[in-house]
Amino acid sequence: MGKELCRDEEWTRVSSEYTRVAFGSLALVRKYPGWLRPYIHWLLPCCKEARRKLKEAHDCLKPHLELREVTKQKALEQGKPCPFDDSIEWFGREYGKHDPATQQISISIVVYDTISDLLCETLFNLCQHPEIFKPIRDEIVTVLGEEGGLTKAALYNLKLMESVVKESQRLRPIALVNFNPL
């Protein structure tokens, strides 16, 4: 997404609101028979709200995309390579004309889902092996004390915790699913 977009509070708000509304709409639409779904979503208020939120996401992303194009053109005119190496650029190179707002929201959903699954699996594994609690707690207390709080260096030095998380991931990797926006 790039530094500017991932730190844009408006984008964060819009994309998370769209995700919430879209999943709520999806749950409601699934209650209808399959043959009716392609039509009913046009009439349901929650689906209309999801489309409004997606348009809002497009509008929020538009200035970022315009600035990117100007920056890319300047770089090309100066004979420099494209200054961007992020998911927006990757999708553009791979698929040509695409919908950046929908793609970015889809990536966010996959990331949230993956992280949620990993944290749940790690917690389940910790519950199954309570003998690990004390060593992990001791490591956290020691490392945070040495590093002066929760810092990047402290996270790097939580080796036992990292091992537990990686082992949880190894024991049960997430089964990814496709997300198709309404």
From TrEMBL:
InterPro entries, A to Z: Cyt_P450 (IPR001128), Cyt_P450_sf (IPR036396)
Pfam families for this protein: p450
Cofactor: heme
GO molecular function: heme binding; iron ion binding; monooxygenase activity; oxidoreductase activity, acting on paired donors, with incorporation or reduction of molecular oxygen
Protein keywords: Heme, Iron, Metal-binding, Monooxygenase, Oxidoreductase
Family: Belongs to the cytochrome P450 family.
PANTHER family membership: CYTOCHROME P450, CYTOCHROME P450 MONOOXYGENASE AUSG-RELATED
Identification of the protein by name: Ent-kaurene oxidase
